[in-house]
Amino acid sequence: MPNRVPLSGELRATLGDPAGAVLLDSSPRSRVWRVELRGGGRVVVKQITDGGGAGSDPDVRYAREVAALRLAGRATAPAVAPALLGTDAAARVMVLEHLDDLGATDDWLPGYADSLARLHALTGPADTGTLPAWSGPTAADAESFLALARALEVPVPPAVPGELAGLIDRLDPTPHHALLHGDPCPGNDLRTATGVRFVDFEQAASGNGLVELAYLRIGFPTCWCAMSVTAAPLAEAEDVYRATWRSLTGTDVPGDPADACAGWLIRGDALVERAHRGAADHLARVPAEDFAWGRVSARERLVHRLGVVAGLTRDHDHLHALGRLGGVLAVRLMERWPALRPLPSHGAARSQG
C-alpha cells in the first residue's frame, strides 16, 4: 500500500515503531513520509521508486543518494543536509533527520550560497569514485546548438565550432572533486534555525562547484522555477560563496563563470524536467514549439541564457564568437515571438513556489 511506511524490523528496532505517518508531496521518483515515532521524535522516511523516466535505475539513484548523504554528513557545524539515520538497501529506504523548515524569505540567497559552498568543499581527491563524475555538455549538445542557429536563420561565425569544442574540454570534471548536489533548486533547500540544508541528492555528483554556483546567473537550469538573479543580490551571493569556499579550502573558486554558463546554455536537456531528459533533441523543438516547464517556457529560459552568456563573453578570450552568436539568437527569438516574458525575479519566483 502506498501509505504504509516501509520500515523494516531492523529499522524499527533501531529507531522505534511509527505512531503515525503523513505521506508528503514528492516527485514520481520517490515516496516520502513524515513519521512520528512511538518513543517520541519525528523522522522522514524516503523510498526510491521505479518512476523517473527511461534509463532511471532506482537502485542506482538510491545508492547515489545514500553515498551523497554520507559525504554531506561530514559537515556538522553547521550541517548542510539532514542526518542519515538508517538505511534499508533491499527496499531502497532511507530514514532521515526531520528538519523544521522556516519557509521562504526574501533574503534567502546569501544563506543558500554559503551552504552551497560548504557542501561543495566537503570532498577532495581521496573521494574519487564515491560518486559519479558530473556529466557536462557533449559534442552532440554543441551540434544541436549550432543546428538551432541554422534553423532560426542566424549565421554561425566560423570560430564558434572551435570555441564550443574548447568549452567542452574545459568543463571536463576530472580535475575537480567538489560534492555537487545535482539539483540545487529552491525546494531542495530548507531554511532551518542553523542554516540552509539541502535535500534530495539523487543526482549528486563529483565535479567543479562553479557549475552549480552558475545557477544564480543562468536561471536555475534544472529547476521548474526558473528565475533571474541580477545586480546587488547576485553580487552578494557570489561573494558569499567565494568567501566561504576560500575560508574552507584556502583556494579561490576554480574555473570561469562564462564557461559554466555557456555549458548550461547549449544543453537542450536543461529545458525540460528530469523525466524527459535524454528522450529527444529539445533544442531542435524550439523553432517549432514552445513547451512549458513550471511557469516558464523553453523559449523564455533560452532567451535568458543567451543574454547571460552574451553579456559574460563580450571581451572573453575563448568564447567571444559564441557570445556574439548568442546575442543575435536572443534578438531573433524576441523578433519571432515578441510575447516572450523575462524570467521572474528571484524574490517573485521563490514566493510562487
Q: Would you give an account of this structure?
A:
The structure is a single chain. The protein is of the alpha+beta class and 353 residues long. The chain is 39% helix and 14% strand. The strands form 4 sheets. Strands 1-2-3-5-4 form a 5-stranded antiparallel beta sheet. Strands 6-9 form a two-stranded antiparallel sheet. Strands 7-8 form a two-stranded antiparallel ribbon. The model has no long low-confidence stretch (mean pLDDT 94).
Task: Record keyword descriptors for this entry.
globular, alpha+beta, two-stranded antiparallel sheet, five-stranded antiparallel β-sheet, single chain, 353 residues
Q: How would the global form be characterised?
A: globular
What's the N-to-C terminus distance? Answer: 29 Å
Q: Give the number of helices.
A: 13
What is the residue-mean pLDDT, rounded to a whole number?
A: 94
Backbone CA Rg: 21 Å
Structural class: alpha+beta
Largest sheet: 5 strands, antiparallel
- The helix-strand sequence is HEEEHEEHHHEEEEHHHHHEEHHH
Give the spatial strand order of the biggest sheet: 1-2-3-5-4
Low-pLDDT residue spans: none
User: What's the count of strands?
Assistant: 11
In brief:
With 353 residues, the protein is an alpha+beta fold. The chain is 39% helix and 14% strand. It contains 13 helices and eleven strands.
Task: Please give the structural blueprint.
Layout: H1 9-15, E1 18-24, E2 30-37, E3 42-48, H2 58-72, E4 84-88, E5 93-97, H3 109-120, H4 139-151, H5 160-170, E6 178-180, E7 189-192, E8 195-198, E9 205-207, H6 210-213, H7 215-218, H8 231-249, H9 257-265, H10 282-285, E10 292-293, E11 296-297, H11 298-312, H12 320-336, H13 346-352
Helix pairs in contact: 3-8, 4-5, 9-11, 11-12
